[in-house]
Amino acid sequence: MKTNCLLHKFLVGFFLLLCACTPSTPETPVEPSPEIRTLTVMTHDSFDVSEEIVRLFEAEHDAEVIFLKTGDTGTALTRAILAKDAPLADVFYGIDNTFLSRALDEDIFEPYESVLLAEIPDEFKIDPQNRALPVDFGDVCPNYDKRYFEERGLNPPKTLEDLIKPEFDSLLVVQNPATSSPGLAFLLATIGHFGEDRYLEFWQRLVENNVLVVSNWETAYYSEFSRWGGTRPIVISYGSSPPFEVIFAEEEVDEPPTGVITSDGACFRQIEFVGILKGTQNRDLAEKWIDFMLSPTFQEDMPLRMYVFPVHPEAHLDQIFMEYLAIPEKPIYLSIEKISANRENWIQAWTETVLR
What we know:
Largest sheet: 11 strands, mixed
Radius of gyration: 29 Å
Distance between the termini: 104 Å
CATH architecture of the largest domain: 3-Layer(aba) Sandwich
Number of domains: 2
Number of strands: 11
Strand content: 15-25%
CATH class of the largest domain: Alpha Beta
């Protein structure tokens, strides 16, 4: 028993000596991983961007970008306003010139003068305090399904006045201007074209012609429009919709399957903006994201994703857009001051005429 104890002590001592004689290898210092910050961008449901574009920003700034889609523009803005004391996001993109005055009146944005604003044409800069910075633009116009009219031997409408003719009974779908930015843009087009004293008469005639009203653009275009399986061959959409139909056609086509009414006063020029929401805890990262959205890298990605066009003059467009884009010669413009002063009354009057 004693021998075993001595042997045990010898082995323990030998092991300790061996460890003491073995040269130690210094530990390689572990570099701390960079802190990944999260930026939340609130948008309308139509927002879309290529994943590789987002990854460029994330890699450069050690960030993760989360997109919070909250309905059509009107719905998204309402949510942003209701949450302004505890903002749901750092940045809000998608507010357009039809709703901009409401956002500015509610004071939900922090001013930010991006260095890239100097490269943007003045025609897109509406807010002199730079609370909302222009990102893209497009023309909201009536679109029509060419095949529908060709198969029935009918001529498609060419003007707004045509839409109230008997042959177009039950053929038009529009968006509610209280919830949809294209819907509000089209309402403003009719006000600009017919005047404040006559636009409701036009809408009353549309009601008599069985116009269909839905809440948003996606429902109107992809559910009710005959081009995509619906029953209505005329829809309020964008002048950029025809080239988009060519690019993403399931089978190659030689020309767009849809057409656009671009007669004088039939379209409204829509500009979309981005702003930093008050109360953000990521002000510096929010500024970098806005700079990124105004850069040609992001701007060139938008047309193929969102039907809209860059405000940056150095952003290049796909040739198909240049070939098939419908550009109105005389779109409707209304100042944000006029829209701000009258928007709610116009929508209320429209609601009483069309929905009641």
